[in-house]
Amino acid sequence: MTFAIHGLAVARGIAIGRAVLVASSRLDVAHYFITASQIEAEIARVRFGRNAVIDEIHRLQRTIALMGPKEAPHELAALLDVHLLLLQDEELILGVKHWIADRLYNAEWALTTQLEVVARQFDEMEDEYLRERKADLEQITEKVLAAMKGLSSPVVPPTPRLPRKPSQQDLLLDDTVDVPLILIAHDLSPADMLQFKQSVFAGFVTDVGGKTSHTAIVARSMDIPAVVGARLSSQLVRQDDWVVVDGDAGVVIVDPSAIILAEYGFKQRQGEIERGRLSRLLHTPAVTLDGQKVELLANIEMPEDAPGAVKSGAVGVGLFRSEFLFMGRLGRLPDEQEQYEAYVRAIEGMRGLPVTIRTVDIGADKPLDKSTREDSHLNPALGLRAIRWSLADPDMFLTQLRAILRAAAVGRVNLLIPMLAHASEIRQTLSLLDHARAQLDNRGIAFGPVQLGAMIEIPAAALTLNLFLKYFDFLSIGTNDLIQYTLAIDRADESVAHLYDPLHPAVLRLIANTITECNRQSKGVSVCGEMAGDTSLTRLLLGLGLRSFSMHPAQILAVKQEVLRADTGKLRAWADLVMTDDEPGKYLINA
Length: 591
Ligand code: PEP
Ligand code: MG
What we know:
By secondary structure, the protein is an alpha/beta fold. It has three domains: 3-25 and 159-277, Glucose Oxidase, domain 1, CATH 3.50.30; 36-148, PtsI, HPr-binding domain (Enzyme I, Chain A, domain 2, Orthogonal Bundle); 282-589, Phosphoenolpyruvate-binding domains (TIM Barrel, Alpha-Beta Barrel). The chain has helices spanning 39-66, 74-87, 90-101, 107-123, 128-131, 133-149, 168-173, 190-197, 214-221, 233-236, 258-278, 306-311, 336-349, 387-392, 394-407, 423-443, 459-462, 465-471, 479-487, 505-520, 538-543, 556-565, 568-579, 585-589; strands at residues 3-6, 8-11, 14-22, 181-185, 201-206, 226-228, 242-246, 251-254, 295-300, 317-321, 355-358, 413-417, 450-456, 474-477, 524-527, 548-551. It has an eight-stranded mixed β-sheet with strand order 1-8-7-3-4-5-6-2. Helix 1 (39-66) runs antiparallel to helix 2 and helix 3 (90-101) packs across helix 4 (107-123). The protein is globular and about 85 Å long. It starts with a strand and ends with a helix. The protein binds phosphoenolpyruvate and magnesium ion.
């Protein structure tokens, strides 16, 4: 039966494919496709893991048999029997083989996929005792996965291939091999997303998350259709269901009929035609009708994103979110040399264009690892995040500063500091920067000059601009957080997403004032939050005097098209009108 689930549109485009449900707790397993010749070896790996757990249970059963009823309660023996039964369950075994042999999933992926299938059947059981056996199933799956780790993988994960797009014929014939896969999860951390960045998925859907949550940002940077905040999607969609992800409208259509498929297939082709049309603007300079030059920069998460940014027409990197180098490493942070090499890769990838490296912004919805998420009773967005985190660990911060300063000897580097609000934080940052330079000097290590920038993303900063302009060469407006902190809306919480409003007059005033003040004092200013890549806001930002936009590479050409059509002379007066209204949004609808 066809049905639709509504969520928030975060990454544009249409994806059509089969659902792969992933429970977030199991995301640590690798997801990659094997080749046909590796099927037997992968099945053998699962068999090895399963047999190891069965042997362990048999050992325990023998030990229990030697104990008295006091030391070994009856429940324990019964539990082991249940675990054995589950491990020997035909459906589990056949299911895992199916995912490996027919779908070419690697062993861990196949096992966790089948776990989801069987777990769902348990959920639907009337009998409470049987329903509760789901927890046992999860336990034994974890044990099998752990046992499999003991056996090194006989296969080298091949480079993940992107599945080809299915033809209408494929879809109607229900061809099961080689169709795109859509990842459906309750939640994904930014670190999970990073793992999936190299992977095979053609679309993403999560139950939770807001439009500017970091998970959504990474999905957007992958330029893959995605919907977040789709509430019950991970419960309503079943493993292997056909789904359409409409990343423009924020809708997920499950089990689409042939007519719906045809309609979305058409939309998909339209999107491709539009992209082809935009690609003609690649080498056109971003200049408005009245001759104003506009700088279109890229936001990147990893050094490997840099070549893609150049290909998209970016004239530099306006925001390198360096924290992604620090994530998913089980607390082992990258040392100075590793960071230096990563920054140099980004600089070289940009081929002489400037790179703005933001110091680490860990915290809030960007934990280092899943296991280190902050306590749920605290509000991490207001806690030890970004520069606060860096200043709390000066050695870590100095290591990063030294690595960036060294990289600045290789190419043009701007150094950007996130989430500053206090004069004392500015002073400490500058003093640590001096210290890092002195350390390099003492060690005889070369380093280069940097332009120093501050992010304006806390209202307190936007209201004390003179303090910032005294110390910094340029400012970069982080609208994602500026909106969050001005309106007291958690950017990652889908339940208040309707109140997360970039066009709230208070937000616009803070942005407008920052742009005006920087322009007046001839200091560089850019917007690097998601507003910069939103084409419906380009004219307004130009009208407010902004000439530097930093966004996901995939958005650059669409924003350039808006720039080429704009006349800033006319837009200035219009922007003034928008700014004096209580409901600025209405001007943009008719713009
Ligand atoms: C912002 O807050 O707008 C920003 C660009 O930083 P991040 O999204 O990484 O918090
Ligand atoms: Mg921010």
